[in-house]
Please model this.
Amino acid sequence: MYGFIVLSIGSFSKLYAGATPSTNKKEYWEGGTIPWMSSGEVNYGQIFKTEKCITQIGYDNSSTKMIPENTVVIALAGQGKTRGMVAITRIPLCTNQSLCGIVTNELVDAEYLKYYLQSQYNQLRAVSSGDGTRGGLNLNMINDFIIPVPSIKKQKEIIQILDKFDTIINDISKGLPAEIEARQKQYEYYREKLLNFKRKD
Model:
């Protein structure tokens, strides 16, 4: 379709693991102001706020790390369909240990990475279901996961197209359930087309 290079996520990103302050210590949670994301919240797709916050002392006494806004977050573990799901932060926050934050450099737009990893949901789950993995992803697996990287200009074009589809299918007021389902299928079809990179012979 167009030129691209193949890179591991770790070659253009810094990965951050989260943690959970002790729930037995009220001072780590009560009156907290630091947004703390749990793995289930990855289902929201975009994270504008978190269900829980921790205090500064809770943050200082755990190994969780703050990640900036527009960080791609992937669920390493979780009930049901959660493992392998991807979201993007819209605020600075920290996470629990079942999430990995991926902060990209100038080679890869975070929105592009989000869309690409969403298209690789089944592959990510397959990677995490191998022998000896105990059905979970880890930072090494994410670090080594290979993705095609076109130019930033092409990445922006892909983002622009998929953003339009995303807006349509997420705006329930724009159609009936059957229409929304059809739009979802259309979106997934075009996402696969846009993100299906093949080398030229």
